Amino acid sequence: MRAFLRKRRLSAGRPGTGDDGGFGIIEVVVAMVLFAIMVPATVSVMASTTGGVTDNRSRVVAASLASSQIEMARSQAASVASETTTRVVGKVTYTIAQTVTTSTASATLVTCSSATLPAVYKLVTVNVTWPSMGSVRPVRSDTVVRGTASGTGGLAVTIIDSSGNPVPNLPVQLSNGNVLTTDSNGCVIFTNLPPGTYTVVLDQAGYVGGDGSQHTTSDPVNVTKDTVSTVSMGYDQGVSLAIKYVDNSGQTLSKADDDQLPLELKTATVSGTKGSKTVSIPGSVTGLYPATYTVTSGKCTLGSKDMSSGVPTSQTLQIPTAGVQVAGITTIKGIGAVTAVYKGPATGSGDFSCTVGTTFKIGYMFSLIGDNKAYLPLGKWVIMVPWNELGVILSIPGLTDMCVTANLTSASTGYTFIDVDAQITKMLSGLFTGGSC
Q: Which leading EC class covers this enzyme (predicted)?
């Protein structure tokens, strides 16, 4: 190297050798390449060093904030509660998340299922985070503080849904005004309670208790000193059930057709294991506690629906129907109610059934006035047409009503036609298929 530099100096001082007295183009290129390689590496090292310094500074600040929060929690003791706050230090916003759970003195958590143990301590966990943390872990601090004053007790409340699963993130209010939110186990534990009687109140929009009410209160619970009493409550998202009559294609009946249904079948009771509600048909009933519900009207079961937890919260019960038309009354004087008598289920009638012999009024017949139409749920029916012995034809001794069978199935379309004149002709000729009821 020394020989090379000496040669370069000699060449630089000797005129006429073709050297320009400086580095050649090759040396300049090599130097630029080396510079291009070294500069990014140097910048990266500097940036890494600077970032490390910044991360260390942030962690020091976060550790200080966590320590201050822990000291505050110790000073609050029994009144300490979960909370999240922020602090700005050196233009950096730090988030301080404080979580409080009930524990034993050894920091073993006390849950609703193990709350028969004295629960007189609280485990306080503080996590501090800040923006641009990357892979840096949050700063965490823990402490155990006295959770209840001497001579006080606690109350553990478990909230479950209709399937027995825990209901998390639900506000639970105690009769003394305290409010806590259920954890993932559907559990809250109220501590530092003076001995006495308390009730638990639930009132969350969209939820209902077993009685179908959003506002639900527990039975009184007695709390004694240095122990934790327990209570469990059922509370779930309310469900709704719409009920309507449809034709054999599943289309909702028109208002005119719906008006032809027996009056007795236009009001129903929706009953489940947790209570019942009344609904007009067509109509909907809301605020049902999830369960399997049966819809009844008088002596008839219209259908049932599984509305238990996990199924769609809004469902529809469709009751299939078909039409019956009584016509051809011009040769008799028919005065009185036309009635339908239930005889049993038919193809496609689904869950619909009545006590055999149940009778519905489906219209009235008057002398020389038009036809009678009615809609009935699918099934086997006997239509009773009134017979007036003072009619223009000869009376038939002992016959005051004429009965005609109407078998309404899922294949029934339009109206099942009952021609009174034709039936009477058959009766008088001895070929009738109807007769005295």
A: hydrolase
